[in-house]
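Researcher: Here's a chain I'd like modeled. Treat it as a single chain, no partners, no ligands.
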Amino acid sequence: MLYSLEVTFTPTPLEKYQNRFSGIGDDGNDDENPDQRKELDCNKVMSKCFAEMAFIGSYLFVILSFVIGITYSVSYGRPKTIMIEFFIAWALDQAKSFPVQIIIYWSVIRRFGFYENVNLITWDDKKIAERGPDISLLDLMRKSVTEFLERPKIVDFILGMVILLCVVIFSELALA
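Model: Modeled as a single isolated chain. Structure tokens:
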């Protein structure tokens, strides 16, 4: 019982403070009344299980094809060529991982340079809650795409492309 209490999720004071103002957690599913928690949807659980089984099956297929390919090449081909190609592929993978990690850091953590880095000297929940929650990366991307697509030139371009596509389709139908 004590172990389960240590590993179960308990909200931090900051999360409780923010949830009080955002309305999250007011559906009666909090820790005070555990009998009224909603059960998981069986279809969602089954779809996750099938997706995991498909992933495991594809992983086993890749491993099996790799082992079969290696044994075939060792029996009938040149095994040194396989090792050289493997180490070249490994080196290229390691060489590309560093710039990819920088791009991931800049896009996800720094949010394309829009993230405001505030150096807090002391952690104060009320001060952090006053700033409000940071906009998520997905919301930032949606907002940026929406702003881009609502520009008048872009709207006119999309409308022109749709009209041109309609003209092409109707002319093809007329000729057929």
